[in-house]
Design a protein that fits this description.
Layout (H helix, E strand, L loop, with lengths): L3 H14 L13 H21 L8 H10 L1 H4 L2 H16 L6 H17 L5
Helix pairs in contact: 1-2, 2-5, 2-6, 5-6
Length: about 120
């Protein structure tokens, strides 16, 4: 079971990827991957919080059930679920998102980060 610190490192690793030129929202040809990276950054933020219990979800459905029972997660469940669905659509339905869509999803991640004190 990954620790809170391991989830933090993976979250930071995913965020770093968003800062390289290939994944710049305004100029990338890989918006689908930007959306997916945003979602997986959110996964690790949530897993950091759940690891404090200690708890580790084995899949997305289990994670959402755990989030629904935890006050700290309930506040961001809407944003998290939107990122999850967007990532699924990008990965499995070949949905073409726009840079404007990615900015909306980026704002969802920002609200999740703020909820857990990762940004001011």
């Amino acid at each position: 079971m990954p620790s809170e610190a391991q989830h933090r490192r993976q979250y930071e690793h995913n965020k770093e990827l968003l800062n390289i030129p290939d994944f710049c929202i305004q100029s990338t040809n890989y918006i689908d991957w930007v959306v997916t990276i945003l979602f997986y950054a959110a996964v690790h933020v949530v897993e950091m919080d759940l690891a404090r219990l200690p708890y580790h979800s084995l899949n997305h459905e289990e994670r959402e059930r755990a989030m629904a029972r935890r006050a700290s997660c309930k506040r961001i469940l809407k944003e998290y679920h939107a990122l999850y669905m967007a990532s699924r659509k990008a990965r499995y339905d070949c949905h073409n998102y726009t840079p404007q869509d990615a900015i909306v999803f980026q704002n969802h991640l920002a609200r999740i980060e703020k909820n857990f004190g990762l940004v001011s």
